[in-house]
């Protein structure tokens, strides 16, 4: 759309240079981009190579008749407004030019204000014509895209009129029901349905004609379709309706759900086996599938929650509806994003779904649960179902938290005592922990001891090394290790150490750790 005169290009065609240049100067002063030519041949050449918003044309040209130039310009671009500006005043020329499509007919000498006003109207009309052409082109493209989408859709699409006669269908619909693409148009919808549905179909059409209401519009339903060879198959149908000048029409999107039904049956059998396997256990079961045309995360997505699962949260059978929202509304706010990301990663990418999160119970408290699940996809890779288990792990989480708190208390204690607390495996091949006091007493970094577990022994005075090494090997595991020895620090100073150790047993009564406490008693030995 033209927004200012600076966006407009005007072509002046006149054999009189004085008039042409005067007119060019006038229009350029008004902000137009103006070009001037003196012959019809030049005008036609210019308009072939360049775009103009309007042409001001003199009929009396030296080479071509002005009306023939007008006719040629109209053929090249019917939306290009041509203003006739000429000294000819006879009515035949005026009418002839206007009949051939001239936008306006002005005579010389011209009125500047009239010319300006006429040119503004011409440019505006041309902009509207261009816009209309663009809109028409976009509409045609949109219709072509729509037809291409309908024809390339994997789902079957059937359009019928209010009498129940098929108006059109896409390739997928024809193939689904076993017909050629042109075989279904003009035939009744009843050819696509088993006989048991036809009475209800006729009653529904009659009700729609009389009341304008339908029980099936806007909600997906599961039915059976009838192929050309008489075979039946399960399908899912979504109906829509609209009214146009041609009457009322219906469109049905039909999806063959044979594979989904097989998957559902396989899952049902699997669920029965699982139910038998976990009967009496502390596991809850869940099983959901998305509605057609809706994301799986919709609040009303159907999900079956087993009685045991509901009981784990403290709810009775009727207190926990079988929809996704029953679960999502009880997810801890801090866990919701993580859980949905895990579900999406499994559904869209097949990543294993095994997560732990908190759910609010009927008593209002949050408890920890572990959920595992497996999605099912049809033969075309579309997500159709997901089932899994829910297990309460609150006691384990509490124990883990208690352990973390205990370890933190131990760490705070160990890191603030003056003695060196150390922890190793029974074989002395790994130092599992050494407190910061090691760096103060030994004068060496804790990192060096982790990297080389025997480096503490290298610091022992040569006269004490043999005795201490023997004691470490034979007395630490039995719990009789209590040795006093000297160490030589990197600065050459000597410190006296009392080192004690005791074994730590696992549940089987076997030693799996050795803990010790090394104390600097140098000052005490000098007293």
CATH superfamily of the largest domain: PAS domain
Strand elements, count: 20
Q: Give me the number of helical elements.
A: 17
Biggest sheet layout = 5 strands, parallel
* Proportion in helices: 25-40%
CATH class value of the largest domain: Alpha Beta
Domain PAS: 142-194, 303-350, 406-480
Keywords: Kinase, Phosphoprotein, Transferase
Domain PAC: 219-269, 353-405, 481-527
Protein name: histidine kinase
Explain the overall architecture.
With 527 residues, the chain is α+β, with helices and mostly antiparallel strands. It has 4 domains: 5-132, Rossmann fold; 153-256, PAS domain (Beta-Lactamase), CATH 3.30.450; 260-397, Beta-Lactamase (2-Layer Sandwich); 415-526, PAS domain (Beta-Lactamase), CATH 3.30.450.20. The chain is 40% helix and 27% strand. It has 17 helices and 20 strands. The strands form 4 sheets. A 5-stranded parallel sheet has the order 2-1-3-4-5, sandwiched between helices. Strands 7-6-10-9-8 form a 5-stranded antiparallel sheet. A 5-stranded antiparallel sheet has the order 12-11-15-14-13, sandwiched between helices. α2 packs parallel to α3. The longest helix has 41 residues, at 112-152. It is elongated.
């Amino acid at each position: 759309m033209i927004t200012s005169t600076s966006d407009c290009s005007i072509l002046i065609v006149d054999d009189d240079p004085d008039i042409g240049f005067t007119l060019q100067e006038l229009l350029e002063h008004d902000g137009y981009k103006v070009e001037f030519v003196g012959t019809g041949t030049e005008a036609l050449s210019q308009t072939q190579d360049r775009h103009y918003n309007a042409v001001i044309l003199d009929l009396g040209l030296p080479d071509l008749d002005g009306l023939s130039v007008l006719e040629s310009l109209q053929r090249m671009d019917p939306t290009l407004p041509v203003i006739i500006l000429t000294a000819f005043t006879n009515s035949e020329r005026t009418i002839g030019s206007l009949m051939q499509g001239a936008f306006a007919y002005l005579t010389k000498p011209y009125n500047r204000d009239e010319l300006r006003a006429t040119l503004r109207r011409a440019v505006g009309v041309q902009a509207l014509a261009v816009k209309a052409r663009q809109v028409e082109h976009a509409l045609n493209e949109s219709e072509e895209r729509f037809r291409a989408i309908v024809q390339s859709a994997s789902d079957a699409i059937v359009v019928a009129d209010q009498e129940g006669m098929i108006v059109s269908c896409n390739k997928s619909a024809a193939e689904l029901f076993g017909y050629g693409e042109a075989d279904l148009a003009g035939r009744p919808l009843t050819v696509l349905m088993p006989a048991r549905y036809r009475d209800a179909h006729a009653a529904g059409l009659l009700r729609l004609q009389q009341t304008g209401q339908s029980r099936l519009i806007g909600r997906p339903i599961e039915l059976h379709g009838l192929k050309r060879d008489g075979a039946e198959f399960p399908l899912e149908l979504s109906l829509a309706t609209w009214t146009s000048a041609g009457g009322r029409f219906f469109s049905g999107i039909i999806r063959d759900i044979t594979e989904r039904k097989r998957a559902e049956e396989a899952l049902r059998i699997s669920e029965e086996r699982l139910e038998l396997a976990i009967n009496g256990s502390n596991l809850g079961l869940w099983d959901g599938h998305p509605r057609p045309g809706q994301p799986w995360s919709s609040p009303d997505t159907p999900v079956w929650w087993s009685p045991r699962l509901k009981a784990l949260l403290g709810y009775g059978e009727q207190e926990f509806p079988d929809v996704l929202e029953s679960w999502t509304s009880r997810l801890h706010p801090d866990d919701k994003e993580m859980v949905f990301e895990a579900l999406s990663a499994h559904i869209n990418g097949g990543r294993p779904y095994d997560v732990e999160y908190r759910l609010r119970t009927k008593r209002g408290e949050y408890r920890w649960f572990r959920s595992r699940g497996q999605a099912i996809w049809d033969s075309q890779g579309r997500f159709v179902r997901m089932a899994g288990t829910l297990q309460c792990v609150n006691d384990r989480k509490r124990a883990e938290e208690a352990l973390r708190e205990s370890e933190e208390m131990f760490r705070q204690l160990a890191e603030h005592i003056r003695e060196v607390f150390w922890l190793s495996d029974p074989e002395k091949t790994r130092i599992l922990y050494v407190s910061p006091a090691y760096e103060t007493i030994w004068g060496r970094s804790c990192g060096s001891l982790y990297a080389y577990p025997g480096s503490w022994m290298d610091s022992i005075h040569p006269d004490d090394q043999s005795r201490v090494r023997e004691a470490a090997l034979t007395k630490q595991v039995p719990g009789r290790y209590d040795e006093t020895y000297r160490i030589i620090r990197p600065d050459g100073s000597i410190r006296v150490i009392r080192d004690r150790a005791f074994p730590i047993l696992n549940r089987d009564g076997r030693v799996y750790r050795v803990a010790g406490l090394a104390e600097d008693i140098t000052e005490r030995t000098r007293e």
